Give the backbone structure.
Amino acid sequence: MNHNYCVIMCGGVGSRFWPFSRNSRPKQFLDFFGTGRSLLQLTVDRILPLIPAENIILVTNAAYADIIREQLPDILPGNILLEPARRNTAPCICWAAHHIQSLDPEAVIVTLPSDHLILREEEFRKVLEEGLRFVAADDRLLTIGLNPASPHTGYGYIQIGRPVADWPGISKVKSFTEKPDLEMAKVFVESGEFYWNSGMFLWSATSILRAFARYDQETASLFNDGIPFYGTPRESAFIEEAFPKAPSISIDYAIMEKADNVFVKTADLGWSDLGSWKALYETAPRDKRGNITQGCRVLTNDCHNSVFAVRGDKVVVADGLDGYIVAENENALLIYPMSEEQKIRNVVNDVKNLFGDKYI
Amino acid sequence: MNHNYCVIMCGGVGSRFWPFSRNSRPKQFLDFFGTGRSLLQLTVDRILPLIPAENIILVTNAAYADIIREQLPDILPGNILLEPARRNTAPCICWAAHHIQSLDPEAVIVTLPSDHLILREEEFRKVLEEGLRFVAADDRLLTIGLNPASPHTGYGYIQIGRPVADWPGISKVKSFTEKPDLEMAKVFVESGEFYWNSGMFLWSATSILRAFARYDQETASLFNDGIPFYGTPRESAFIEEAFPKAPSISIDYAIMEKADNVFVKTADLGWSDLGSWKALYETAPRDKRGNITQGCRVLTNDCHNSVFAVRGDKVVVADGLDGYIVAENENALLIYPMSEEQKIRNVVNDVKNLFGDKYI
């Protein structure tokens, strides 16, 4: 029996890529790079050589059940856990751990976001394979820390502590840090002690449930009540009732920043969280004028360093733009300076308030 | 019997408003100002108090027959003349004159473009009424010259000569001038002798056909062959055969610049030929930041002096644009500096050559 499981969290909304992403089709479901595969599909493709489809569990919002079945026909319906309400990562992870433990008490789990880019896939699987062995061997919580390619102010950082003997690249975590300012980020990167927090986690089902019991009793107690139902036909009825009562809290805040058995494996995976247009811009291939084109035909004479992400087999003719995002999807068109992209979240809110839900 | 007729020329393509206008739906068929009426419909609305619907003849390309029937259900099908090929204005006018003369040998005709703006409609009808009487009284060709509101370099100019006694505001035409450069245009306007060429013409059917016979024998002879057929069921078969053989020549060049009985009535009609985005920009109502919005909802923080003409109930979020045209229709999006708008024609050609007809 294969005790390795993968939980892919794919319930996020993500308004930063509006209007390319929509409430009805968030970022993870988009064919981001025009390769024919969505970020979620790429995530599954990437893990499949390591973990068989029957051991891959998707946790998502109930609203996305149809998209997921459409995009991932090979994942069994029973492996798709549908959250009846939007909460943060801790409730999602706690439920998934219970569900998996009910199937396999010896399970070890790698938990992944569904909307990141990883260029070095072989290395990625090697790192996870080693990590799974590390957490199977003892009561440990492991996170993946990435070599910081730049003093990025949009990421959290993990400070490494004492290395673990016989496990190359694995250290005790000294501290987690929220997004730093640029000066601080530069100090972090130069120190060699800080790594980007990837949001990828490894642990045994037993270890993470034990950690919940110790550090987040509210969530633990809520989901412990479901132990008679996990893995049975009554699981979803229980979740329907219990899940909305869960606190909205991140796994970092609920567990990782508090537990004393947290480790980090450092790696260089060619990773980006694709958290913003700028991140996409820095990742995707550009033409000789520094422009990126996605899903459309573009004719420009004097445009530079811009992203053209327009859906629906359109032609875009533009001139005089430098450093712009031109993004269109369905009934919404965005023409925005990339340097102002942090405002897009607020703009989406304004659009919703002024014009209604149908545009977001 | 009412001998007054109106010919509305509505077969033009007009690529300067791409992608707002399309090959399949040129400018004259668009609801340009969001009033619920297309420019063509507005043209008909404007003339109807003067000339009854049964005396209004539309000349257009066969490709637009359906749009015209849809937009103008009150115009009899027999009053829509369908050109089987694209030619310039002279063949169109020659055919229409023959057609009308076959119905009414005493007809006097006002010929109008279908895609212009006229703000002073009462004055417009007063001017045309007087003009119709002027051309009914004698063998004269009359054009309308407009008070030049600015030294516009996109218009042709008419220089007035000797005034005609007893016909206030009507003069002999001294010369027609093509689009001048700015310096010349300023001299024109200051002189008080030059008026914008409106492209509106008045004459009796007899007079214009006589002028064709004198000054454009090729066109005259071609359409004279159809005299047995005009106004009969065999007219369209004749036209199908003959029209494509007509030379592509403008009425100005074929007749007006050559004839010696050409007069001009000057007027102030609040007129624009809406020949470009800039012309539209100068005409339509702007918000406090100088922006114009057509057919969409726009959210901008820092955009100025721009046109947002996006079709299909969309929201547009933009920032940092000054003096831009943002126009979208079906599968084409244009984001272009208004100062460069003279390049749009070429761009449309490039789009056609690079990506195909379906985008234009």
Notes: Chain B has a mean pLDDT of 93.
